[in-house]
Every structure is written in C-alpha cells, then in structure tokens.
Amino acid sequence: MSDAILLGAVAYDAKVVPIWEGIREHFQSEGVPMDFVLFSNYERQLELLLRGHIDIAWNTPLAHVRCKAATEGQSLSLGMRDSDRDFHAKIIVRKDAGITALAGLAGKRLAVGSRDSTQARILPLHFLREAGIDLRAVALVPFDTDVGKHGDTGTSELHVLDALRSGAVHAGAVGDLIWVLEQAAGRINPSELEVLWTTPGFDHCMFDALPTLAPDKVAAFQRALFAMRWENPTHRRLLELEGLKQWMPPREEGYASLVAALTAPDLL
Amino acid sequence: MTLSAVAVDAGELPLGGGLLTLLRPALLRVAPGGLVAVLSRDRAARDDLQRWCQVEHHGFLGSEVVDDRGTQRHLIERGRLGVPRPEREAGLPLALQEDGHLLAATVLDQAPFPEHADPHTGFAPRGAQVEPGGPPYPVSLLDRAHVAPPDVARLYDQAVAAQWDASRDIAWSRITRLPDALEWSVGQLMTFLAENELSALYVPSKFIPRLHPHFAEVGMFLATQVADEARHIDVFLKRARVAGGSLGVSSVTTSHSLLSLLQIEDFTEAEFMLSVLGEGTFIDLLRFVERHAPDEPTFELVRRARADEARHVHFGLSHVRHALAHDAGLYGRLEQSVRRRAATMSAVGGVPTPIQDALVVLAAGGDAPDRISRGHEAFRELLHEMHDNRMHRLEHAGFSAEQARTLSELHTPNFM
Q1: Element (H or E) spanning B112, and its range?
Q2: Which of A16, A145, B294, B317 gives 20 to 30 Å between its CA and that of A3?
Q3: Residue ranges of domains in chain A
C-alpha cells in the first residue's frame, strides 16, 4: 500500500465516491496503484497536501492558486479537464430591469454565489471592478451555500438563477457552464433573462502535487490519467460523472486573473 | 445519408430558446468533421455557442458578420466524440401491399439483419444511429446464421394475422358431456396437450432475453409463439372441464421428457428439439385427435391449435436449415443432443400408458370391446405416421436421409 499514490478529493456530492472508486480501478488496471481520501472542504485538503499527508490534490482554482502561493510557485500541476479550460462568468439580467450596460448595475440588486466560488463571486466581481464598476454602488445579494466546497456544488449559482427568475434581484453572476447547461436543458426562459456581459476567460480545476513527489509517481499518474478514453464505456461513465470528455495537460496562464483578484484587498 | 455541410438559420433565437433545437439535429446530419453554419442575430449566441461546443466537444471555428442587420455566421465542426453509428439510413419509403397493409417482412427487406450484432448497441433498434460508449448488454445470441432465418418476419406477419380467441371463437355451448370412457379420454388427452404446451411456452421464452435486439423480428416471432401456447393451454384446459369432466394423469415420463427440453441452453438445439422434433410430432398427434374428435367444437379447437403449431414448426425448420447451411459442425452437435436425451429417456419408459389408452379409446369412439381393436390399429398407425413425418421434416431441414432416420429413431417415444 505504501507505494500507492494517495489522492485527495473533496466530497462535494455523493457521486464523488463512485467516480474515484472507478478511477482507482482504472489506475489498477494500468498497473498504477492509487487510493484516495475524501475531504469535506478544500481548506483541509490543501493543508494536508502541504503537510505531505497526501500525494496529489484535485483542487478548485482557488485551492490551486493558494497551493502555488504556499509553495512559492514550486508545486506541480499535473492535469485538468477539457471543461476546466476557458471558463467565463456571465452577468445575467432580467429583461425588465432596464439594464443595458454595466454602468446600469449601479443602484440595482446583483445576486452573487458563495464567497469561495471562483466563477460566481470572486472573478465576476474582480472583472467588474477592472471594468470600472464601483461595487459600493451595487447592492450585492450573496448566496453563501456550501462554503468550503469552492462553488463545486453549483447550488449558489442555481440560487442566483432562482433569484433572477423570481424577480428578487435585477442581475446575477453565474459561471458560463451552468448558464449554457441550464439553457441546453431548456430551463432558461429567454423572454425573461439575457446576458448583459461575459467576463474574460479563466481556468478551473487542477491536480496539484508538492515538488517533492517522486518523478515516477508523477509519470505513472499522468500516464494512467491520460489513458482514459471517452469511447471506452467503463471510462465514459466516470468521465460523464466528473463532467469531462478528455483529460488535458496543465497550463498556468488561465489562473492569472484569480491571482490578481486574491491580492486585491476587500474582495472576500 | 450524411452530409458534409449544413446551414441553419436561427434568426433571433437564443441558445436555450430554440437555437440548440435547430442546431443539435443539424449536427446529427453531418459526418464527424462536417460543418454546420449557424446564422444568428442573437448577440449572446457567439459566447454561448463557443462554450456549448466546448462542453459537447464540437469545434467552434469562428464567427463573421454577414449582413448589415448584424447577422452573424458561426461555423461549427462536428466533433469526433459521440459519433453515432451506423450511418444514417437511406430513408426510402416502404412498399405497401396491394390491400394497403404494411408488413414486417417489408421493413426487414429494407433494414436487413446484420451478420453480427454488437452488445454495446443495447436496445437501440436496428438502423438507429448509436452513440458509442454505451454499456454492453447481457445478450448472447449475436450471429445472424444461428439466430435469424430470413423468413422470420414473414412468419411473424402470418402469426399476427392468425391470432384467435379461446373464449369467443369456439362454440363451447355445443359441447355436451360424453359417455364416461370418452369423456375420460378427452380429459386425459387435454391434460397431456396442455402440459406439453406449457413447456412450449417456457422454452422459447427463455431465449427472448438472450437475443440481440437487432434481431428483434426473431423475438417478435417467439412472442407470437408464446402467445399461441398461452391460448392453447387455455383452450385445452377449458375443453377438459367444460362439460363437467376433469383433468387426467401427468406421468413421470412426460415430466422427465419436458424437463430435458427445458434444460437445453443452446438456442438452435432447443429450436430443433422443441419445434422440429417435438412440435412436429405434436402436429401428428393433434391431427389424430382432430380426425377422431368426438364433437365439432373439439375438432375446431384442435384444428386451430394445429395451424398455429405448423407455424412454429416452419420457424424451427427454417432456423435449423439456415444454421446447418452456415455451420458444418451443427449436425454432429444436434445428433449428440438427441442421443443424450434418448439415453436419459430410455430409463423412464415409452409412451405414457394413460396417453396410449386415451388415444385408443378416442380412436375407438368409446370402450366397447369390438371397437377397441380398431382403436389399437389407429394408434399403431399414428406411431408410424409420426416416424415418417419426422423423417420428412428432418430431410426438409437439410439433413441427409440417413441422418434423418438416425435422429427420428432416437427421438423420444414420448412424442415431444
């Protein structure tokens, strides 16, 4: 067991168990012993990664950026989902709110997601401020659900959309993934809601490891991970559950805006 | 038919408000790597399409403004993941019969059975565009040669057209109680017939879930066979009881014989034993009962059952003939199977005596001593007739005369 790669993931949903049980089985079949530990929040997971209790952490962008900061940029990025690339946040408005430009948000109620949600709170507010919007003039209506899960559950984004539908707010911030998926499922009424603004792009989750992780473990982990195929029914079930079609190599440039947002004062 | 490029005009529809409803089917019409051009005047469409394409793994190639009304043309390349197979059907209209009927056989002509079916296509009907990556289904009958004779759809069409009703279609009111010996004989025979038909309901049933759904017509035919057997069980048991008679004896010989049928796990072998040998001989038995029927409704119900059974025999013959033509080793396996069964059966005796006695009394028209010997003669003729007809059927199924004789003589003396 001591040779096994120990991976950490946050149990943001019951499906996390079958996902990692299945991926563990796949790793075994690739000759890569692996086991996983589930955490209830990303703060604890990051803490135990930094202490060396686990080898690899499946991190949100917020946990990834914090991991980089804590290791002075030395931590290893091992891979991400295709769906983690080029995320955007959307500012959605009610059509009857009379908001036609970002400046029109002044004096209006803007729903935002959990305080640790990159896509529904941290980055939309950061990008709004960069676009010159004075956030003190906007009435923020926060939905702080599932704090510690970094927005993974998507519940705060669904609350934002509900608040928009009910008319409780004039505008709301959600990630473009939820926005597109809710539309594709036919749950958005286009005569009621529309997109006011799309933020610049940013990247999402990442597998992080300490620089001290043995190179053969790094290589074995990446080999087994990238061997998963959408066309394979066993893999496909896991990939569908985890919300991707293909694992991708890591890239860092997609986190620059989040680094900037976290160094700015008073946002969180 | 797949196309290389398709254009969709989505007007002002937003992504979730109709644009996808036009785009998704358009993508299914092009081959992977093919292009769909979406014309749209919705200003959010560009971003939304780009994200949606990423989620669905299609390529978003870019957008350009094409007129002064702000119409944009978004170019999407169909992704290589989630590729349906096989290719889309040609979509030719189906030819109707002169009377306007549309037959399953016509559909089969247009969408023929595959030579081999893939368990990963699940319950997708033959001809559907199947997304890859589905789970394998626990079906084991995958080869056309061993599963699907070419005339199965025609037999299904005939079976559906020939369904009848055991409550309504028999003149039950015209059956009166027979003299005791004849009434007993009818009750005993009906018991035996129903017992055999129960086995004929169970045996094909167990193969239906093993059939690959691409051979649906085989399952559909077997379903008509199962429905036929249900009706026969119903009608035979009604006949036994309708005039106050009761059921007869179920013998251990019959029980052993039918169990050995039920235990066959190979579809072709089971079809051969049940439909070619068993039901073939059963037809001769029904014809005998028909010939000596004590009243017109009994004649009629047996006649109807025999017509159904003839269809089952036809399917069995067709199945075995088709399989023999494609599998050189099949004859040997079938002969072995018949020998095995004969060996088991030799330990439990010949035609069950209650059946023999009932057939003699029926043919004699009662138990008057002067008529019983005529009944005996008729029974002996029946045994010869069964052997001769079995030989004919076996030769018809594709066996040589010598193979046919061997198999027929080995066949269980219990008829089924």
Answers
A1: none
A2: A16
A3: 5-84+204-254, 89-198
Distance from CA of A54 to the nearest CA of B (A): 31
* Burial status of residue A134 (CB atoms within 10 A of its CB: 0-12, 13-18, 19 or more): exposed
Task: State pLDDT tens for residues B114-170.
Answer: 999 999 999 999 999 888 778 899 999 999 999 999 999 999 999 999 999 999 999
**Identical fold between B3-77 and B144-410:** no
Domain limits of chain B?
Answer: 3-77, 144-410
Q: Is the ipTM of this complex over 0.90?
A: no
How many CB pairs below 8 A link A and B? 70
**Residue whose pair of structure tokens reads 């505008």 in the numeric block:** A171
CATH architecture type of domain B144-410: Orthogonal Bundle (1.10)
Topology given in CATH for the domain delimited by A5-84+204-254: D-Maltodextrin-Binding Protein; domain 2 (3.40.190)
Strand, helix or coil at A138? coil
Question: Would the CATH topology of A5-84+204-254 be identical to that of A89-198?
Answer: yes
Does domain B3-77 fall into CATH 3.30.110.40?
yes
Please name the residues in contact with B285: beta carbons below 8 A apart, sequence gap of 6 or more.
B193, B382, B386, B415
Work out the angle at residue A122's Cα, subtended by the Cα atoms of residues A116 and A126, and round it to the nearest 5 degrees.
Answer: 165
Top-tier CATH class for A89-198: alpha beta
For residue B138, give how far its alpha carbon lies from the nearest alpha carbon of chain A (Å): 14
- Supply the Cα-derived Rg of chain B in whole angstroms: 30
Chain B residues with CB under 8 Å of a chain A CB are 13-18, 20, 44, 47-48, 51-52, 54-55, 57, 81-82, 120, 132-136
Q: Do B16 and A183 touch (CB under 8 A)?
A: yes
